[in-house]
């Protein structure tokens, strides 16, 4: 099971996730999000020994200027949450980045949309709530394509990860369920550790 944790703070959370072997570390660049990262804070990312972890810039319709100035120097992947087309994905890939494209799923008919982004490296199936942690319906999970290229987001936690894995999911994306109860956007390191420990327990 590959894991991406989203909404991280570059200075506060990155080293812990690297040490725990988290596959993808997501940093949000979206002004309306409580998890939005200050551009000034990303400089520290260059100082980490990432080991096997990858850094992901999570964006919504990013322009070329932003990508060239901030993303190319600091990130391995860019995650696209906006209205990006197949052509736009091709243009961003040509800059030297790998692409995670989010597909929002309300019902079964929406699943087929992923075929419009066959040039993305990873497809992330998410609920319409995005950062609101809406649970992904079990009946729809069973209809998603399988394989390491496909990831699932939507209210995943240590309490349901075994059930998610048993449904055939091999790549999950978490955010709000790993945060403190007191503050949206502030990661709870104990929750992260417990989740990874639970996942390792399931693997073994």
Name of the top-level CATH class: Alpha Beta
- What would CATH call the architecture? Alpha-Beta Barrel
Rg for CA atoms: 16 Å
Number of helices: 7
- How many structurally independent domains? 1
**Derived structural class:** alpha/beta
Low-confidence stretches: none
Number of strands: 8
Order of helices and strands: EHEEHEHEHEHEHEH
CATH evolutionary superfamily: Aldolase class I
What's the shape?
globular
Characterize this entry briefly.
The protein is globular. The protein has 204 residues and is of the alpha/beta class.
Characterization of the model:
It is a single chain. With 204 residues, the protein is an alpha/beta fold. It has a single domain (2-203), classed as TIM Barrel. The chain contains seven helices and eight strands, in the order βαββαβαβαβαβαβα. It has an eight-stranded parallel β-barrel. Helix 5 (138-141) links the parallel strand 6 and strand 7 (150-153). It starts with a strand and ends with a helix. 36% of the residues are buried.
Tags for this model:
TIM Barrel, 19% strand, 204 residues, 7 helices, globular, eight-stranded parallel beta barrel
């Amino acid at each position: 099971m590959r894991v991406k944790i989203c909404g991280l703070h570059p200075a506060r959370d990155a080293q812990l996730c690297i040490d725990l072997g988290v596959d993808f570390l997501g940093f949000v660049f979206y002004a309306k999000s409580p998890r939005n990262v200050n551009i000034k804070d990303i400089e520290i990312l260059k100082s980490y020994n990432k080991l096997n972890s990858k850094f992901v810039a999570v964006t919504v319709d990013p322009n070329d200027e932003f990508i060239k100035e901030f993303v190319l120097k600091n990130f391995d992947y860019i995650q696209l949450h906006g209205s990006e087309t197949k052509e736009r994905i091709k243009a961003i890939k040509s800059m030297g980045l790998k692409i995670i494209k989010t597909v929002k799923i309300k019902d079964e008919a929406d699943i087929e949309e992923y075929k419009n982004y066959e040039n993305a490296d990873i497809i992330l199936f998410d609920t319409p709530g995005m950062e609101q942690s809406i649970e992904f319906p079990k009946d729809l999970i069973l209809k998603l394509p399988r394989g390491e290229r496909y990831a699932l987001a939507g209210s995943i936690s240590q309490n349901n990860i075994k059930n998610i894995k048993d449904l055939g999911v091999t790549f999950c994306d978490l955010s709000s369920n790993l945060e403190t109860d007191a503050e949206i956007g502030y990661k709870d390191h104990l929750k992260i550790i417990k989740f990874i420990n639970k996942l390792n327990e399931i693997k073994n």
